[in-house]
Amino acid sequence: MPLQILPSRGADMYREAVVERAAYAPAPFNAILMPEGQAPPNILDVRAEGLRHELNQPGVVSYKLIDTDIEGDESEQAIAFAMWVVYDQDHPYVPRPGPELPSGANKEAFALLCVGIAEMKEKCMGDKPHIFLRSLRTDPQHQGRGAGKMLVKKCIEESERRNLPIYLDSSMPGHKLYLKQGFRDVGECLTDFSKWGMTEKHWNWAMIRDP
């Protein structure tokens, strides 16, 4: 089944929202961030609109990986997505507000997670020029086919072309993938969700790959 990387478009963002939701569904903290039964019926539409807004921001680069053997258009063929932000002389780093949360979301838990991750990034990178690999998502039905690795390599190509380091924050599922692609740990953040009954520790690692 041939896989192909193409730039993402606004029309792809609903499919990306679907992939994102499926990718995060097994995570233990998912039910804390969005309690069962609290998600609005149009949550995918709301998320897709948020992704379209992100796509149009300065310095944002987004790619999709499609399987051309899947019937349908490019959006329907998409099995993975990556989005990163280039912070350089043309687009210097400016702190951005977090995403607008849908109704029903646990705002306290979201804040706990996002603040810790944001502080970790600020400590590691500050306003230095870099590429921020903001997201990497693969449809769970297509995991194990190298989709994530292909998209990470696409980001690495841009890093080397621009001579900029890549920064990302990784949770446990993606940590080994990034290590294999030459990233190194430069910080870590533990989010305590025990208030909501979660006993498993949730770690995020700050990671950097130099060009």
Please sum up the structure shown.
With 211 residues, the chain is an alpha+beta fold. The protein has one domain: Gcn5-related N-acetyltransferase (GNAT) (Aminopeptidase).
> β content, as a range?
25-35%
* Fraction of residues in H or I helices: 25-40%
Mean pLDDT: 94
The side-by-side strand order for the widest beta sheet comes to 1-2-3-4-5-7-6
Q: Can you write the helix and strand succession as a string?
A: EHHHEHEHEHEHEE
Q: What count of helical segments does DSSP give?
A: 7
Describe the structure.
- The chain has a single domain (3-209), classed as Aminopeptidase, CATH 3.40.630.
- Helices cover 36% and strands 25% of the residues.
- It contains seven helices and seven strands.
- Strand 4 (130-138), helix 6 and strand 5 form a beta-alpha-beta unit.
- Helix 1 (13-24) crosses helix 3 (43-55).
